[in-house]
Specification:
Mean pLDDT: 95
Oligomer: single chain
Largest sheet: 7 strands, mixed
Structural class: alpha/beta
Shape: globular
Number of strands: 19
Low-confidence stretches: none
Strand order of the largest sheet: 1-2-6-5-3-4-7
Strand content: 15-25%
Length: 448
């Protein structure tokens, strides 16, 4: 990771950590890098979520792009996966999504995608950072070379058509609940489900610039749980602010996490001979229960570092076709280059309709193990993590758990914290083993 761009773009509080000046410079560099630097006029696609500051960043990016001679095509309020899709199929040089995903409204972010709709290569992002820090100088465009903006709402409409075409079944007679998180899916998701014949019930689809992710969406799934039960719905889907993730609620009001989704759709693919390599890609934070369920049906799995970026990299390298995170970032590599919440919900509908079974039955074999996670603030993450006595304590727990659980000790990517997590048959067992390791970390003087 660089100075500004992390695994999910340049993110921070608007005009505090991420400023309009940053946005102008990002636009300036990308417009030049993909345009004048290569002897042509660059075409760059821009989308945004519903945060109040997204408008400011949209105009700032456009200003920078045009000043460097690029044409900026504006999709307006739309989802991250729609920007990835349209960037790829309409041959844009790159795409930019303005969003801080599931963060509160006062945060924002700038995600940059390459011409294939994938997260931008680290090498290019490091060059952007050098320009932001004044280490590179680039010329401005003049006269007929100055760029322009183009209203490109047609791109969003084409993406909607693509989603509708993904369904093999009519949804007629199915009662579906959607929680749009007052975010980017508010003007897309309902139309897709309606077009496919569902009886669609929607909550949190009235964005005002401040209420994105506020007590709603996939980070507050409890409201959709209640809504599904009260309305007697067959299924519910909750998205986050930029709709690149999806969690489900079954007809009984139970949460169906990203791990459940990987199990349900992975098994569906295996049964149809579509699960290439017979593998599902997970992250190290997937629940132990997912692995036990996959073992029972003979499906193998990969484990990557936390982050959908790493999941996708693994899928590209290995040819695996489905992967994701417990949080609901699910990637179907045949259809998308990024997590797509609405596509994920359509795929879950497909399994329900193909098998003629309710979601509660489909997800039941993937039983979550109790989990206890504690953060330990330390002086030095590497010192604490690599301490021989700490490692011995971790190994002792792993040996005692055997095949009935697991322990995971890892460094936080953003804080001076070591995370100690245990999954086992009961909360009491988890708590005991987590505390056992923390006692050693404390005794060795690693606490900050």
């Amino acid at each position: 990771m660089g100075k500004y761009f992390g695994t999910d773009g340049f993110r921070g509080e608007a005009n505090k950590d991420l400023t309009f000046d940053h946005a102008i410079k990002i636009g300036r560099f990308l417009g030049w890098y993909y345009g004048a630097n290569q002897g042509k006029k660059a075409k760059v696609l821009i989308g945004k979520d519903t945060r109040r500051s997204s408008y400011m960043f949209e105009y700032a990016l456009c200003t920078g792009l045009m000043a460097s001679g690029a044409d900026a095509y504006i999709m307006h309020v739309t989802t991250t996966p729609s920007v990835a899709y349209i960037t790829r199929i309409d041959d844009f040089d790159c795409g930019i999504m303005i969003s801080a995903s599931h963060n509160p409204f006062y945060d924002n972010g700038i995600k940059v995608l390459n011409g294939n709709g994938e997260k931008m290569e680290e090498e290019t992002l490091l060059k952007v950072e050098e320009y932001i820090d004044g280490k590179i100088e680039i010329p401005v465009a003049e006269r007929e070379d100055i760029g322009r903006t183009v209203d490109y709402v047609e791109g969003r409409n084409r993406y909607i058509g693509y989603l509708i075409s993904m369904s093999k079944y009519s949804f007629k007679g199915v009662k579906v609940g959607l929680d749009c998180a007052n975010g980017a899916s508010w003007n897309i998701a309902k139309g897709v489900f309606n077009a496919l014949g569902a009886k669609t019930y929607v909550i949190n689809d009235s964005p005002d610039g401040y209420n994105i992710n506020t007590d709603c969406g996939s980070t507050h799934i409890e409201h959709l749980q209640k809504f599904v039960v009260e309305k007697g719905l067959d299924i519910g889907f909750a998205y986050d602010g930029d709709a690149d993730r999806c969690l489900c609620v079954d007809e009984k009001g139970n949460v169906v996490t990203g791990d459940h989704i990987l199990y349900v759709y992975g098994l569906y693919m295996k049964e149809r001979g579509k699960l290439l390599n017979n593998k599902v890609v997970t992250t190290i934070m997937s629940n132990f229960g997912l692995y036990k369920a996959l073992d029972k049906v003979g499906i193998e799995y990969e484990k990557t570092a936390v982050g959908d970026k790493y999941v996708y990299e693994n899928m590209v390298q290995t040819g695996n076709r489905i992967g994701g995170e417990q949080s609901g970032h699910i990637i179907f590599s045949k259809y998308a280059t990024t997590g797509d919440g609405i596509l994920t919900s359509l795929k879950m509908m497909e399994v329900m309709l193909a098998k003629q079974k309710p979601m509660s039955e489909l997800a039941a074999p993937c039983k979550f193990y109790p989990q206890v996670l504690k953060n330990v603030r330390v002086k030095s993450k590497p010192d604490a993590q690599n301490d021989p006595d700490v490692q011995a304590a971790v190994k002792k727990v792993a040996d005692e758990l055997g095949e009935d659980g697991r322990i995971l000790v890892r460094e936080s990517g953003t804080e001076p914290v070591i995370r100690v997590m245990v999954e086992a048959g009961s909360d009491e067992v988890c708590e005991k083993y987590v505390d056992q390791v923390i006692e050693v970390i404390t005794a060795k003087g690693h606490l900050a």
